[in-house]
Design a protein that fits this description.
Helices cover about 35% and strands about 20% of the residues. Strands 1, 3, 4 and 5 form a 4-stranded antiparallel β-sheet that branches. Strands 2-6 form a two-stranded antiparallel sheet. The longest helix has 14 residues. The chain starts with 6 loop residues before the first strand and ends with a strand.
Length: about 180
């Protein structure tokens, strides 16, 4: 995804992927999962509001555990769990992807937009190239799933994401921006 040593910040736009993470932390004897989930308790309400899983809101802690295991552990030498989540939320609040897309007349309205126009709108707003990932709806249409911004090791400074292999994260040249309401 990003260069080695970089923290990856993910701004979940619309998650319509059936998560395999629902199986994470189901075993009460899984101490590591329990530990990380306990670490999030002080900021759980904030995470529910600021960083929800649009696909499966009821998985909450398991979703954030997945985010830490998948992305946060890359920055473990610099950011502990709480610092990772606070840093990610601070960056999310600085980067208003919905506003950047709306300014380019790109809305979550089940319409199709060019991948280039989405990339351009976000790059213009942030000054940095994101990585965009797609999944497919029931009809097989490519739809926006994740927008990833890369940051330096400190988690403070945005950097350009390196090119995403496999045609920009599974996206076709025209992608659907599904409504999430």
């Amino acid at each position: 995804m990003a260069k080695l040593g970089s923290l990856i910040f993910i701004s979940k736009l619309v998650l319509l992927l059936n998560f395999a993470v629902t199986t994470l932390a189901n075993d009460p004897n899984d101490f590591q999962a329990f530990y990380y989930i306990q670490q999030l308790k002080p900021i759980e309400k904030m995470l529910q509001t600021e960083w929800p899983s649009f696909t499966c809101p009821q998985i909450g802690r398991k979703f954030w555990l997945h985010e830490w295991n998948k992305h946060g552990t890359c920055s473990k030498s610099v950011l502990d769990e709480m610092s990772y989540f606070h840093t990610a939320l601070n960056l999310k609040n600085k980067i208003n992807i919905f506003q950047a897309l709306a300014k380019a007349k790109i809305q979550p309205n089940n319409q199709f937009y060019s991948l280039d126009s989405i990339n351009t709108a976000i790059t213009r707003a942030t000054g940095f190239r994101p990585s965009i990932f797609c999944n497919h709806d029931a009809q097989g249409n490519s739809q926006i799933w994740q927008v990833i911004h890369c940051v330096d090791k400190s988690g403070v400074k945005l950097i350009n994401c390196s090119s995403t292999p496999n045609n920009q994260g599974g996206c076709s040249s025209t992608i659907k921006f599904p409504s999430y309401n």
